[in-house]
Amino acid sequence: MNHYGRREFLKFGAALPLALRSLDLRAATAPSTKVPPKRIIFICNSLGFYKPNFFPTKRGDFSTSPYLKEMTTREKMTVFQNLFHPGMETSNHDSEKSFLTGASSPEAANFVNTISLDQILAREMGGDTRFPFLSFSIYDRGWGCSWNNRGVAIPPMHDEGQIFDRLFGEEDLTAKRRQIENDQHVVQCLYRDMEQLKPRGGDPSKIDSYRIVIAELEEQLRHEEFWLKTKKPEVPNTLSTDQEFAFSAKIRNLFELSKLSFQTDSTRVITLSLDWIYGAIKVPGATGGWHTLSHHAGKADALAKLSRIEVDIVKHLNQFLSELDQIEEGEGTLLDHTTVVIGSNFGDSSNHTCNNLPTIVAGGGYRHQAHTVLEKPTPLCNLYLELLHKHNIDAGGFGSNTNDLGLLAG
Amino acid sequence: MRLHKVVRTLRFVALACFSIGTSAGVAEAVEDHVFEILENYCFDCHDDASKKGEFNLEKLLDEGNFDGSLMFENLLTGKMPPAKKDQPDTKEKRAVLDWLAKRKAANAPNSFRRISRHEFVHSVNDLLGTNLDVAAHIPEDRGTNDFDSNRKIQLSREMIGSYFSVADEILNHAFPAGGIPAEKTWVTNKVKDSHETYNIYLRPYLEGILFSWTRANNGNSYSFFYDNFDPPVAGWYELTFDAMKVAEFEEDVSLQVYAGKYYYADDRPQPQRLVGVISLGNRELKSYTIRAFLKPGENVSVHCYSRHTFRKKAPKEGAYIKQLTARGPVVDEWPPASYKMVFGDLPVEGEPREALETQGVQTNLQKVGGTLTVSSFQEGMEKEKMQDGSNRTFWHTRFQPTVAEPPHYVILENPHGAEIEGLSYATWSGGNGNGQVKGYAIHLSEDRKSWGEPIVEGALEIRLANEQPILFPRMTTSRYIKFLVTDALSLDGKSLASIGKLDVLTPLADQLETSTITVASRSSKDLQRVIRRFAERAFSSELSEEELAPYFRVGLRRFEDDSDFVQAAKVGLKAIICSPRFLLAPGEHAKRSYAKAADLARMLWLSVPDEELLDLAASEDLTGGTLRAQIHRMLGDERSHRMVRSFSDQWLNLRLLNKVPPSLKLYPEYDDLLNHYLPIEPRAYLHHLIQENLPAGKLIDSDFSFLNQRLARHYGIEGVIGQEMRKVRFPPEVPRGGLLTMGSVLKVTTDGFDTSPILRGAWISKNIVGTPLSPPPESVPALEPDHGEATTLREQIDQHKSNKSCYACHKSIDPYGFALESFDATGEWRGKYKIKQAHRGTFQYRQAGYFTWGGPVDASGELGEDKFEDIFGLKKLLLAGEHKVAYNFAKKYFEYANGYEPGLEHRLSLWDLIARSPGDVKMRDLLTEVLVYSLTTDEE
Fold first, then answer.
1. Which of A377, A393, B106, B753 has its CA 20 to 30 A from that of B706?
2. Are B679 and B743 a contacting pair, CB within 8 Å?
């Protein structure tokens, strides 16, 4: 069990350069009263939601949305209508790459992504926790919602058992300390080699690209070293092992792990990408290819099955939100200190169009509006910019934003 | 000659840009000439007025900035101008192609790439003499790119972090710090208990067990787990089955061997993986050995398969296994090969390796000299049954002639006061479950009289087949430990208790014998020699002292710590395999010839060069005939299978094969065994085409393939007995042969329910014919198979014809898919469609499935002017364009090898390679020439 811990730690997104700086700051300016920290999670349902079932037909009345009428945290959420990403009016499944970055034309052959919103947030909010951010997906696919400052994909974690182990599993601390020390020497060795490579006529772009990732790894080793001093939280394993509805159980587990991570303050920034374009899955009441069904072309039987899948996802989301809302923290609940953003890169995946993206913001202690219908198509990045501001990040702009519209201000 | 206005306009623009100067003048003259040719041969159909096929060349030329690759491809491969029109002569054609290639200077690919996770793991294994399959421990990094080698993929911190940790993993396997565990042998003929529903499909037979084939009600392959073999450490184990076929029928019975954790005594799928298949044709006992990499916590399970023995209760036919003999962890040489590979001639000192035999079972309680007593027992279900290594036998409290009164308990005696950490309990779950323990309390005593308060109480799972540990709050050395049953399952209201296994947990039992190996050197010079040797192989270069200094330093630093030579060398080795010289390609090479050797090894072996290649690189002899001879030699080496697998998996999209489980309602015969062999067929086939240097047309059609009993049955081919893959010749009426009609390829284009001619057509266009596809226009609803309605898809597709903008592209996509309609979503031949039927209540697997037959398949279509009736007709049409198929293969292989799509200039050269060859294009020659071209194209 232990030898997975370290390997997985290194394998996936965990630490960021600013981590240590923030820790020093915290020590110097230790607050006298404990204010619950802010957390944020972005969930991308990459095949979207069938719009007539998602948006309330009567403005502000959740009972007119077949999907949202069962939500128990209705007073702590806002559904946004008419958001879009400029430059992505229509796209293939690559549009998911831009869900959290807003970069245009993700399907283009020479596309290079930009930094995703969660990574900007993690840079500022991630330093105080063992994991500056976490990124989850349903299967091993190499990319999800999180992209680093060079637009390179951060591979998400997908194995629930391994994630649980990394977060809460026991570690052989002596072995790990020795390992980190060893790796630090290896890193120094590599720096020395790089120093002599360039003058010898090595390809500068190649060496520079390598130097950047080694520097990032070095920071991560320091972050890991710091956290050796703190014991991991002890948490009972509450993950579902249901094999009949394995897909459904997987989604539940990723939500459960997100909840546990926030609850134990193991991280404050999470992304979760939900997709499956490879054939049949089974959820209560339906078996079918999620992707195939998403191209329903308005046919009743396809829609009936598709809604079962979407209802299942909304059910897990609802459970996640209400559980966060039941955990008391400070003056309110964990949900009040956690911004939950649920959205998609597709407005209508049946036609592969990206206008009117289904978007919900829940929790976070905002004055929620239940249902905000924007008069004209508005860049989703405006909302993203506002979220940066809400988390005290004075960003000049983000992606395709035009301005902070104060959508969550009330 | 009519001089067109577009040409005039463009010439004007050109003049404005390149005011004066000879080169501009030349460019202008070339352009004039090209426009003239285009005007003569293209504008008839593709001008402003006609814009046939929605292609208005006149407008494009007018605008100036257009992507000419489609035009280039059509002209190059002779698709345009159409055969019935006037054709440009060779010179004219070449002029246009050259112009197109030059005007669209390809986006220069990155000058380097990272090595993929597969290349990393193979290289490190080859450098260390290990064989660990750990690529999955590095995250998938290909994203949506077609090939792992794509130069667009950049290193991330997460990726480099996983290279660091996988480097540790392999190095620790090669040189374990705690020594090498003793080899042990286990012999067992007991299987763990399973759900009562499945216990009827096996029975005691002679000295072992006879298995018949079953599948759980939900369709999972039901396998039986062997007891009394728990791998103590991760490593390679040899699993020997003494087995035979018990049946009169002609076909072999197969034995699928899995490794995994055993969790559930019911029909839920166990998380396990197939480690080998044994084909039983023998009617006398025979030993079969397979190798598997096992980890602690895993067990070995078997699933017997034969179409004749499905769910035969108390089977008379099936696979008889006398016993399983497991041996390991296996080390083939002593000292292990890794020491020789890395430390060369240095004296390696190792204790002789212990080999221990575990015959039968010794429980921990027996090891500490303990015994147990029980409150009561039923005859035939005595206390010894808890200690016999099987939970198919069990202890049961007395129920006849009278029912024993509670309390029910077991007392374990620990006579020598051994340290006991807890108990290990396993349920007996095979029967109706009566008496299974639900609640317990543990009491301790020194005198067996005064027991005091329980030290721990708890609940146990009743349907969990695996051992359930009961940990004590603290270690105890008490003489007596009482396991008191506080609650048990009772189906008849009686007070009962039953236990399959009960044992103590003690640290003594876990101690492993190990043998340590050291390198007898205290010399830092020796350490530097070891590091140098390894670095020169890993970096494929000669290296100066100065260059090696950082690597020496990191190793020597560790050496100073505790003088452990091997551990110090490991640090140096780790730095080497995490170095940019190793992880980025091309690396840093003293000579261009070394880079060539490294490229070759990566392209053909996914690895590093061997000594022969390095020697040729050192003497700069990797050119011309020698280079070709080396490619030939490397293709003949075992390691070339990696390339064939990697290339075919990526080219044919076969990595997605297991993402789609076929519907068991429609395809009830689909099973794990078929799933295992499907992707092996294209690999074996492609490898054969290359080795035998057969014509590229064989990619499309041939009269043979590589099959075994299972695949042959899937294809309806008689007389193939046994599961080993072999070349099978087909009579002419068989539609197989060639890649298109392989089950794997036919399956990967479906969603597991039904087939889509559009997706299959697009797959052939892209991967075989090489027609570039543009994405569908906006706001056109996509058509995908509509499960349940069997006849509408073709009609929907026919709508493509009525819409001009759809038809422009789909007329050259869909027809390929029509021909493949004769094959269902698993690749089986069909004359009619299946229509899925509902089942009542919960799905219950049945061999007949749940479907009725619908309308007949229409596999006809037309490609341009050419009509075909079925797959035979389509293959003929494709074969007529054999050069095109070879050309597409060359392009794909170029992309695979170089990490970027060939630009138009590259394509011209690739086309020339093919056009040059008289007669058939041969596969090995083609592959060789693509590699030679790749390796020499950027040489100044």
1. B753
2. no
Pick the CATH number of A2-169+237-390 from 3.40.720, 3.40.50, 1.10.10, 3.30.70: 3.40.720
Which tokens is B47 given? Answer: 């001008």
Q: Say yes or no: B549 contacts chain A, CB-CB below 8 A.
A: yes
What's the total number of domains in chain B? 6
| H or E stretch at A70 | none
- The token pair that represents B467 in the structure block: 């051992």
Minimum distance, in Å, between the CA of residue B573 and any CA atom of chain A: 10
- According to DSSP, the residues that pair with A136 across neighbouring strands are A157, A272
Chain B residues with beta carbon closer than 8 angstroms to that of A202: 588
Cβ contacts of B459 within 8 Å, gap of 6 or more:
B438, B439, B440, B487
Q: Determine the Cα–Cα distance for residues B496 and B484; give it in Å rounded to an integer.
A: 12
Percent of chain B at pLDDT > 70 equals 90
pLDDT band at B8 (very low <50, low <70, confident <90, very high): very low
Q: What is the ipTM of this complex?
A: 0.86
Q: Which domain holds residue B421?
A: 364-510
Q: pLDDT tens for residues B220-241?
A: 888 888 988 989 899 999 999 9
How far apart, in whole angstroms, are the C-alpha atoms of residue B892 and residue B896? 6
Cβ-proximal residues to B20 (8 Å cutoff; 6+ apart), any chain: none
Judge: A188–B554 Cβ closer than 8 Å, yes or no: yes
B588 contacts A110? CB cut-off 8 A: no
The domain spans of chain A are: 2-169+237-390, 172-231
Task: Please tell me the distance from the alpha carbon of residue B301 to that of residue B262, in angstroms, as a whole number.
Answer: 9
Whether residues B39 and B141 fall in one domain? no
On whether both B741 and B846 belong to a single domain, the answer is yes
Residue of A nearest to B796 (CA): A297
Name the nearest CA neighbour of B220 among B315, B306, B303, B298: B303
Strands B866-868 and B501-505: unpaired
Nearest CB neighbour to B160, from listed A197, A213, A352: A213
Contacts of A291 in chain B (CB under 8 A): 751
Residue where one domain finishes, among candidates B63, B82, B103: B103
Q: Does A244 contact B268 at a Cβ distance shorter than 8 Å?
A: yes
- Locate B258 and state its tokens: 């899995």
The angle at the Cα of B603, spanning B597 to B607, to the nearest 5 degrees, equals: 70
Q: Is B263 within 8 Å of A350 when comparing Cβ atoms?
A: no
Do residue B865 and residue B745 come from a single domain? yes
Distance from CA of A129 to the nearest CA of B (A): 18
Burial class (CB in 10 A: 0-12, 13-18, 19+), A159: middle
Q: Give the CA distances from residue B228 to residues B356, B358, B387, in Å, rounded to whole numbers and listed in that order.
A: 15, 10, 11
B554 located within any domain: no
Instruction: Kindly state whether residue B634 falls inside one of the protein's structural domains.
Output: no
Are B316 and B398 members of one domain?
Answer: no
Q: What is the pLDDT of residue B804?
A: 67
| B266: nearest CA partner in chain A | A243
Please give the model's pTM, rounded to 2 decimal places. Answer: 0.88
The pair phi, psi for residue B416, each rounded to 5°, is -100, 15
Do the chains contact at A154 and B158, CB–CB below 8 Å? yes
CB atoms B158 and A12 under 8 Å: yes
Residue A11 has pLDDT above 60, yes or no: no
Write out pLDDT tens, residues A13-31: 333 333 333 333 333 334 4
DSSP codes of every residue in B476-491: E--SEEEEEEEEE--S
Q: Does B781 touch chain A (CB under 8 A)?
A: yes
CB contact under 8 A, A11 and B139: yes
Task: Report the residue of B104, B120, B121, B144 to disrupt the A interface, i.e. the one with the largest count of A CBs within 10 Å.
Answer: B144
Distance CA B929, CA A129 (A): 55
